Structure formats: C-alpha cells, structure tokens
Amino acid sequence: MKKFVGRVVAGGKISGEAIVSKQGMNTLATFQKSALKNAKIVISSDQNNPDLYKKVITGKILCLPKTIGSTTGGLVIQTICSMGINPSAMLFSEEIDSLAASGIILARNWENSQIIAIDKLGDKFLKYVETGDKITIEEDGTVIVEKK
Amino acid sequence: MKLTQEEKDILNGSQGETMAKIMKTVVDFGDVFGAKKLVPITHASHFVTSFGIGLLKPLFRTMDEIISAGIKTKEPFTVDPRPIDYKNVKCGLLNKLIFSKIMYKEQKRYEEQLKKIGLKDEKGFTCTSYFEEVGNLPKYGDILGWAESSAVVYANSVIGARCNRNSGMLDLFSAIIGKVPEFGLLTDEGRKADWIIDIQTSKLPEAQILGSAIGLKVMEDVPYIKGLDKFLGTELNDDVKSYLKDFGAASASNGSVALYHVGGLTPEAKEQGKKLIKKDAKVYTITDKELDRVYKSYPILWKNLNAKPKLCFIGCPHLSMSQLKVWATNIINNLKINNRKKVTVRTILTTSPQIADEFRNTELYKKLQKTGVKVSSICPLMYTNNPIAGSKPIITSSNKLRTYSSSRFYKNDDILRIITGGNK
What we know:
A: 148 residues, alpha/beta, Glucose Oxidase, domain 1, eight-stranded mixed β-sheet, two-stranded parallel ribbon, B: 424 residues, Aconitase, domain 3
C-alpha cells in the first residue's frame, strides 16, 4: 500500500478500482464509440492506447498522466458525465491539461456531476498504480493505492 | 484570480443567472491554471463543435439557455466543418438514415442555434478559418479564445497569435464574455520551448508523419524545430503555410501540441531565435529511420487488410487553395500517365466553402470533375463516425483522420498512386 498526495481540482471521497493509462489518454478516441452508441458503459475505443483499448472505464478510477487529442475533449467529458457513464474519478500524475480541466468544471458547474479530479500526483504514482488496484481518495487530495 | 468590479458583478448575477454561470466556468477554469486575471479577446472566435450529434444534450440545452437569456457572442464566429454533404459525398439510403435520423439528427436545430448566437455566415463552417479566403484571420499578437486543435496550433505557431488549447464550450463561453484567463500560451514564459527537435533527415519529411512523431513524443509541450528551414526556406509562402498546417494538425491530434516554433521560419523563432528554448530543453532527433519507425507503428484497423479501398479523403484539415490545385493537377496528370480517365477509388478533396466556390469557377475544376473526384466542405472525421460508413476501407493522407477513425493512412505519393491506378 502506498499513499500519494496531489492537488484537488474537484474534490470528493471515494473508493474504487483503478484503470490505468500509462500514456496520455485521447478523450475523443476513448469515449466516442460508446457515447455515439448511447451505451450504458464506456468501453475504450482508442486503438492507439493499448492500456485502455476495449476496457471498461465507467465507474472506475481512471489514472493517467493527462489527456490528449481533439479540443472537443472537455465537451466529451461533460457529455459522458451527463449520461452517467463517466469514470468516478480522474487521477492525473501531471498537471491537469486544459481540456480535461474544462470537462471537469463543465460537468460540475452545469451537470451537477460529482466526478472527482486530483492532479500533480507525480510520476511515482503512475509507475506504481496498475489496473485493478484498489484506490481510496480523500477530500484533501490524498490517494491510497492498495495492490490487487 | 483578481477580477474587475464588472466581472465580479457578472459573477454575482448582475447580467442574469446564465451569464453568472458562464463567468463562473471561465473563472474556475483560469483558477486551475493559476491565471491572475482575465484579458480581452482581440479577434473573432472559432468553435470546434459543428455537429448536431443527438447525444450532445448538454450542448443543445446550454445553447437554448443562452438564446433564451438573449445572450450573443461579442463578435461573429466561425466553426468547424459540417458533418454531412449529400451532394458531394453521396450515401446509400441506410447511411443517410443513420446520418440524418440517428447521428446528426440535431444538425438543423444546432445550426439554427449557432446563427442565433452569432455565427459569421452560412459559409462559416471550416476547420481552416484562418485562410484569407475565409476571413477569420488573426494577426500577430492577437489574443484568441479558439478551440479546434489544428486551428489553435496554426494560429499560435504560424501567425504568432496567442491562444490556449481551449475546449468546446469554453470557446463559446469565452466568446460570450469576450475574455479569456491569462495563463500558459498567453504568456511569454509559456511560449518557450521544452524540446529541441533536431531534423537530420535526407529530404523534407512528410508533414503528416513528422507532426505525428513530434506529437507522440512531446505531448503538449512546446517544441523548437531546428533544421526544417533547410528544406522549407525562411519565407511563409502558401506552400510552406500549407505544410505547416498539416504538420501542426498531426502534432495536435497525435499528441496535443498547441504551439511549435520552426527555427528561421515561424514569426517568434525569427524574432527571438534560440532565446525561445528553455535551458533544460530535451532533445529529440528526427532521422529517416525514426520517421519510418513511426509510420510503420500505425495499426491498420481494416477487417480485411487486403481489401480494396472504397473511399479516399484528402483534406483533414481542409486543403488550402494551393494544395487543392496541386492535388487536382497531380490526379489529372497521373491518370493520363496511367492511361485512365477516372480515379480507381471514390475520392473526396475537402476544403472550406469559400475556397471550394472559388475553385469551382476554374478550368482545372472542370477537368477534375471528369476524373470523378468530388470537392466538398464536409468534415471527414464526422463522416467516418457513422459506424457503417466508417467501417468501409477508407484511405487518407491525414494523420488526424487516421487517429480518430479506422481509415488507413498513406503518404501523399502512395495515395496518388492508389487513386490513379498506378503501379507500385
């Protein structure tokens, strides 16, 4: 078990299972197919991201360096939050990028979403955490990772 | 963030609840990045969201709320290309049904909403709003609130305007309040390069592959590219600008580059030279071998790897006039060489409505028409979102389209050879 502390972008307390992308997550490419199908859960459709491709994202704690790709990214995050198929939290090892930040703020301000976002957790966090690990997030930005 | 009294009043509801929510969202966004203030936008906006996909309910709901509150953008804006063009990109009945009744069933409603809040005009639908023909061309030093990754990276890098990588919705909100938070690429420090890209290739690299390689490596950092002026020269003429457009789009979609400098060529690099490079900048060397490695790493997502291509899209981002003329001329000439009259793959050249109109009045267009090639202002990416249309074997010279669809990427020369029936 290891503890990491980041900066709270959108706070909250939750426990859940990690899904980890060691590379930048392309928001549009990851969510577009599930969103277009009006799916009940998101299964990543990003062919270029083997860490996430064909894996379930909904309800998981998504760990990543940051998001990349199309500038529709924020709107896509807002939309999946409005559909209730979002990850329950997004944990960024680096400083959150502008598109993910927009999406989180839009979801919180316009959709009453409770999605949690913590950033600046550091490279060690992303090296340590693996898909399937149990994660607990505290209100102050503390993230506890327990190996599966 | 320190706000002016007027901004505080808006936040507190002086201009109504919707404006307060819009202001709060822009301020919250700036706070995340440590912005100290909002600064005025000095040039008209460009939005990324041009498509009425039914599932984007939050977008349509917000637009209705904005319209009901009588709110408009400060300046007329342009927006990305339309997702449908039945006249030039013909579809079967089933595809039409999916496009019009399922996927983009809100298109008409959304376009009405865009008009009501300040869309420039009927032809304001292109990802290359910055071309002179379109007329949403910022100048050096302008502060922008644009979205559309390929337009942002072009405006920052080739024009020297200042724009962060804004998201859809934030582009709209910034255009409404006429201000953006000052941070990142709006500051001198934020425009300095984190990477030196050392070009050591034997010839001018293919723009789409070079952009992809750099995007995949530097992600959202700022690269300073050395050695490209050796091939491109030091003047931003139409051909060079077209090259940089495609290069930038690939870097922005394969990674998330929003600004690059090309030594000896782009405005800030010409002005400040190596002073733009941070002391601890990392180095990425580009060789012929490295570009080949990146090109070969692209997965091929066709169900049948040996399928005959059914459709070819050229122009994502939209082609410039000079690119359109080069493609048209090359297609006509190569068909002659190959003793053919028509292209062997249904081919769509995409460009802005203004350039398309101008091009349709030329003799070259009349000749091109005879080859079966169509000119459209559609967004190929939005077209390929249709699961039936998109699952066909589509080929493209766009690395952006490759990234967001199952289209197969080929270099320009290979595309030309395939669509004109040439031999390997």
